[in-house]
Write a structure and sequence with these properties.
The complex is a heterotrimer. Chain A has helices at about 5-30, 100-115, 125-140, 150-155, 170-175, 180-185, 210-215, 225-235, 255-265, 290-305, 315-325, 340-350, 380-385, 385-395, 400-410, 415-420, 425, 430-435, 450-470, 475-490, and strands at about 85-95, 120-125, 145-150, 185, 195, 200, 205-210, 245, 330-335, 355, 365-370, 370-375, 415, 440. Chain A is of the alpha/beta class. Chain B has helices at about 1-5, 25-60, 65-70, 85-90, 95-125, 130-140, 145-160, 165-190, 195-200, 205-220, 220-235, 240-245, 255-265, 270-300. The two termini of chain B are about 25 Å apart. By secondary structure, chain B is mainly α. Chain C has a single domain (about 35-285), classed as MetI-like fold (Orthogonal Bundle), CATH 1.10.3720. In chain C, helix 3 crosses helix 8 (about 150-180), helix 3 (about 60-95) crosses helix 11 and helix 11 packs antiparallel against helix 14. Classes of the chains: A alpha/beta, B mainly alpha, C mainly alpha. The interface between B and C is large, with 104 and 105 residues.
Chain lengths: ~500, ~300, ~290
């Protein structure tokens, strides 16, 4: 090929590529499903004030919460928009084990029968990046319409969520334990508290055990046990170099801290003097306490004495789970997130799964509040004028009917007192370790300490690692953690009184 | 003229002493030395490279139970299975991930190479005010860690509708690869004797035509080498893609596989299969293309 | 004259526009951001604080530690990749059977994305992974070792992974450089009766000077700012043992949501790299003949 021909082709190619880029932007935008592609025409003008239909809640501060004229009917199975117009919604989720996906499928199927004009696309935002990403998306205005709202606290501050006061009836909320209802209210941009989420599934922590190993070691399954008995069991279950009594996760966000904090609370440690759920306004922080130190020491000693899998400092919940599932460890702290799956996996290896309540420490048998899954509607739906349709889905998903399908498929626990009495859950031995905990649960931190979870995840967890590696003493951790928390709160304008 | 570059024979770096060929003992000794200094490192190197990869390949044919059990990590597969691959394509839009990566990488390569060719030639051949400044500026842009620009970029891209689509990724990757590609191509252009272009100018071409008809064809190996760099960069990239793309349908391969890690706690088999599927096409492509890459770099005689 | 310059600028235009939009503008925004407190949890409280956050950084012990560990990570990886890359370049330069195939194989780590390489090695380094299995069977260690959980071995394990991933870059650059060395130099050394090692040290290496300079400089810059591998393998743990400066910036931004503070850290990273580049180039030019 002569240089001449080559060069001309090359030139044209370059020109084509360059102009192609300019032309392609709008084209590819269309193909790729650009982030801002509203398909539904709003039914009401965006700035209309909320109709005065609902007596509950004051929608005063948020003029853009504009339900359509059908706001009067706020039952979960309200009729949809005028027939003929398909509404497309996006739903976000942070977990997606195959059984989770299946659970969604089943609920969606049932939902479609009731509302054939609403189509939903399911997006998945993996846990690890979820909070940071959702914040970024909130700032940029690209959140999905609705879905998992576990980070409601921070999103509400960014005015990224739609208040549900007018949409959820008191009957709907009465299905929950009283203490939960409080946790569904957040302070909105108008400095008033509104309902921003509904409860979707429940869960606290229990000790999942490999019952086969327990039987082999001659241990019984007590109805309740103490922290000392727990350590004894861990010791008996440890076979040097083959198996460990317990597997601890000390890396990653969410789980590791929660599990650790439960141990601290079992010994009487806490964020504030009383119950965190009862603390409504800033009061002295009591993280640095002898009780905390005792609890942290107990937790650390499990590892120090060799009853815990040595890779704990870098084990995330995935590795911890893998340790348990492969028989490397006999016990672990775990929530009821995929019990069906886990039972099957153990069975395939000839082992039996069982759940025990958390061991009782000097301060009793602490539980987290039990409110695990929240669902809500994001401001994107408000902008697109599809709040009503979004509510149809959210309310169905979290209704007794929807939850029965969902939890029945993937083995989670529903968030409804009525359902707990349902034989499907009440009669299964796996759930027994969890159900009783719901009655005496407490939050990890008070409602006014907004965002402090990030301090626990980003600073607390590395301290846990330091504890395990003997580079930090429990006393040092107590002091440093308290300092970090207070500094964080004050940097965010929350004045913490000194106690 | 083009021949001059292509027939430059590879030179063997002598790393063993010259020994007279006269006696058989010497031949044996020579072979042994050659083995130790040449073959042994080669074998070790190949082992070093391949072992992790082979292990993944092996693991992709094992069941999850086998992968997880304490005694399961052996060379012998107790229950070979294709299930992981089946699930890979069935449960996840893997083919779609692949397509996305290909489109983005190809687009990036074509554009980055063309733009860099123009820019590199300009920096190489012309002297104009601001030449050093721009050259330095190109280098400086390499140095800022992604974090600092990520948030700003996200907001910018959102405003321009560049999220969740190919265009956004291509534009981003272009910007990331152009500095390095420009620098590389500048080196190539530097190595082409000016006399050739002088001759073309005398013959009546202007700068632009001489670029297309003389300089560019001579740098073909260089263009190819640069293209490969850009392609790999776009294929690999993770942090930028994971921030800009939320729609599962638009995930690139790298993001897709990384997201699989969160999805199912215990699915190492699936992960292994995913890694294998991601790397094999590239390896094959690379096997064909590596000759040109090295030729291209040699031609450019990578200098400062 | 003017027309000639016009062509020059025109040629530069497409590249500059691309970079301007995606690299420079956000960079300026990043610098500006570093002068404000911008915490995700307090959208209503974002004051201008000037250089205060930079002062905070210098006093932050974690920052200092990340700085040092960042260099540990970078220098370890670059040296590792360089050495292995040099060996690989020499190997690839030999007349061997199936040379093309061997070259192709050696370059495999280059085409594997960092994120995937990280996952691969994380699996290899687990308690039942290949590394532990082989080492225990060979009797090198008695018991499996949690490589990534032990602060003493975590960073070396990461460096090993990065070496595996990064050496092909050096191999290719060095190989190309080697092939450009004129035959006459080798013949001259042969005539002078130099040993292999002497040839390597006095002929090969000096000729590769500029190649070595460029590739190590680029590799240093890229490695110092990279977080893919570290994030996926250890997330900076255990207990900050593998926390580099780049990780500090990323985690501060996306973990604790302190955007302004993180921007300040990123600016510092950029400055450090620029200073490093300046010193490096200066030293190189000082000792160079050209």
């Amino acid at each position: 090929m002569s240089p001449e021909r080559l060069s001309r082709r090359r030139f044209l190619g370059g020109l084509a590529a360059g102009s192609g880029l300019l032309l392609a932007v709008p084209l590819l935008n269309a193909c790729g499903g650009g982030a801002t592609a509203p398909t539904a025409a709003p039914t009401a003008s965006g700035q209309a004030a909320a109709p005065t239909a609902a007596p509950t809640g004051t929608a005063g501060g948020s003029p853009t919460a504009a339900p359509t004229a059908t706001a009067a009917t706020v039952t979960p199975v309200a009729t949809g928009r005028p027939t003929g117009q398909t509404v497309k919604l996006t739903n976000v989720e942070n977990d997606s084990r195959p059984l989770d996906n299946k659970a969604y499928e089943n609920v969606y199927k049932a939902f479609r029968e009731k509302h054939p004009n609403i189509e939903i696309e399911f997006q998945i935002l993996p846990w690890e990046q979820a909070e940071a990403k959702e914040r970024t998306m909130a700032e940029a205005g690209t959140l999905p319409d609705m879905g998992r709202a576990n980070f409601a606290a921070s999103l509400v501050k960014l005015d990224a969520m739609v208040p549900l006061d007018d949409l959820a009836t008191s009957d709907y909320l009465a299905r929950y334990p009283k203490s939960w209802i409080d946790d569904l209210y957040f302070e909105g941009p108008d400095k008033q508290r509104h309902l921003y989420a509904v409860a979707w599934f429940a869960g606290d922590k229990a000790i999942l055990i490999n019952k086969t190993f327990f039987d082999e070691a001659g241990l019984t399954r007590p109805a309740s046990w103490t922290t000392d008995e727990f350590v004894e069991a861990a010791k008996k279950l440890t076979i040097p170099n083959k198996r460990w009594g317990v597997t601890i996760d000390a890396a990653g966000i969410g789980d590791p801290w929660q599990n650790f904090w439960l141990c601290v609370r079992a010994f009487g440690g806490g964020f504030v003097k009383g119950r965190a759920s009862d603390s409504k306004s800033p009061e002295p922080v009591t993280i640095n306490s002898p009780e905390f130190i005792k609890g942290a020491t107990w937790w650390r000693d499990l590892y120090k004495n060799g009853y815990a899998v040595p890779s704990a400092p870098t084990d995330t919940y995935k590795e911890r789970d893998a340790n348990f599932m492969s028989g490397k460890a006999a016990m672990m702290w775990q929530g009821p997130w995929s019990l069906i799956d886990q039972r099957e996996t153990l069975k395939k290896q000839g082992w039996e799964l069982a759940a025990l309540p958390l061991p009782k420490g000097p301060a009793g048998n602490p539980q987290s509040s039990g409110l695990a899954g929240l669902a809500g509607i994001f401001s994107t739906a408000r902008k697109r004028g599809v709040v009503q349709e979004a509510w149809q889905w959210v309310s169905f998903l979290c209704s007794d009917e929807g939850q029965k399908i969902y939890s029945g498929t993937n083995g989670m626990l529903p968030a409804s007192q009525a359902l707990w009495k349902d034989p499907q859950f009440a009669n299964d031995p796996i759930y027994s370790g969890y159900l009783e905990g719901f009655q005496n649960g407490d939050r990890d931190y008070p409602i006014w300490a907004v965002g402090v979870q990030s301090v626990f995840d980003q600073k607390g967890v590395p301290m846990m690692q330091g504890l395990l590696l003997n580079q930090l003493t429990p006393e040092q951790m107590a002091q440093q953690l308290q300092d970090e928390v207070i500094r964080f709160l004050e940097n965010n304008g929350i004045k913490v009184p000194r106690g | 003229m083009i021949d001059m570059i292509e027939t430059r024979a590879p030179i063997e770096t002598p790393i063993h002493p010259i020994i007279s060929r006269r006696s058989p003992g010497r031949i044996v000794r020579r072979t042994v030395i050659r083995f130790c200094t040449v073959y042994l490192p080669t074998i070790l190197l190949i082992l070093f490279v391949i072992t992790p990869f082979l292990w993944m390949l092996l693991g992709s044919f094992k069941t999850n139970i086998e992968l997880m059990s304490s005694q399961g990590q052996t060379l012998w597969i107790k229950e070979p299975t294709l299930d992981n691959y089946v699930r890979l394509f069935h449960d996840y839009p893997f083919a779609r991930f692949f397509l996305n990566s290909t489109i983005v990488a190809t687009g990036t390569t074509m554009i980055a190479v063309s733009f860099s060719a123009f820019a590199g030639y300009s920096l190489s051949r012309f002297s104009f005010p601001g030449r050093t400044v721009i050259g330095v500026a190109f280098l400086v842009t390499q140095m800022l860690p992604g974090v600092a620009i990520l948030i700003a970029l996200y907001i910018q891209f959102r405003d321009f509708g560049l999220l969740n689509n190919y265009a956004g990724l291509i534009i981003g990757y272009n910007a990331f690869s152009i500095p390095f590609c420009t620098w590389m191509l500048r080196g190539f252009f530097d190595s082409i004797p000016r006399e050739l272009e002088e001759a073309a100018l005398i013959d009546g071409c202007n700068r632009v035509t001489s670029f297309f008809s003389v300089a560019l064809p001579l740098t073909l190996p260089g263009l190819l080498a640069t293209g490969i760099f850009a392609f790999i960069l776009a294929w690999h990239e993770f942090v930028f893609a994971v921030t800009m793309i939320n729609d599962t349908k638009m995930f690139t391969l790298t993001v897709g596989i990384a997201s699989m890690k969160s999805i199912n706690i215990i699915d190492w088999g699936l992960l292994n299969a995913g890694v294998v599927v991601t790397t094999i096409p590239l390896v094959i492509l690379f096997a064909f293309v590596q000759r040109y890459l090295i030729q291209g770099l040699t031609a450019g005689a990578v200098k400062g | 004259m003017l027309r000639k310059n016009a062509v020059a600028y025109l040629f530069l235009l497409p590249a500059c526009v691309s970079i301007l939009f995606v690299d420079f503008v956000p960079m300026i925004y990043g610098v500006r951001l570093s002068f404000y407190v911008k915490n995700i949890f307090r959208p209503d409280y974002q004051p201008f604080v000037g250089l205060q956050q930079y002062r905070q950084l210098i006093e932050d012990p974690l920052f200092i530690r990340s700085f040092l560990q960042g260099w540990y990570w970078t220098i370890g990886s670059v040296i590792g990749s360089f050495v292995v890359g040099m060996v690989a370049a020499i190997v690839m330069n030999q007349r061997l059977p199936a040379r093309g195939l061997i070259r192709g194989i050696i370059l495999i780590p280059w085409v594997v994305p960092s994120a995937l390489a990280a996952m691969m090695f994380a699996l290899l380094l687990t308690s039942v992974g290949l590394v532990n299995t082989v080492l225990t069977n060979l009797g090198v260690i008695h018991d499996w070792h949690p490589w990534l959980s032990d602060p003493r071995t975590a960073m070396p394990a990461l460096i090993l992974t990065n070496t595996w991933k990064g050496f092909p870059f050096f191999a290719v650059m060095l190989l190309a450089g080697m092939q450009a060395i004129p035959v006459e130099l080798y013949e001259a050394s042969r005539i002078d009766g130099a040993t292999a090692w002497q040839t390597f040290w006095y002929v090969t290496l000096p000729s590769l000077r500029s190649t070595i300079m460029i590739s190590t400089l680029l590799s240093t810059i890229w490695t110092f700012s990279s977080i893919d591998l570290i994030y996926i393998m250890t997330s900076g743990g255990p207990f900050y043992a593998t926390f580099t400066l780049a990780m500090f910036a990323y985690v501060t931004a996306f973990g604790t949501g302190q955007m302004g503070y993180a921007a300040a850290a990123s600016v510092v990273v950029a400055l450090i790299l620029m200073i490093f580049t300046a010193i490096y180039l200066y030293a190189y030019l000082r000792h160079s003949d050209a």
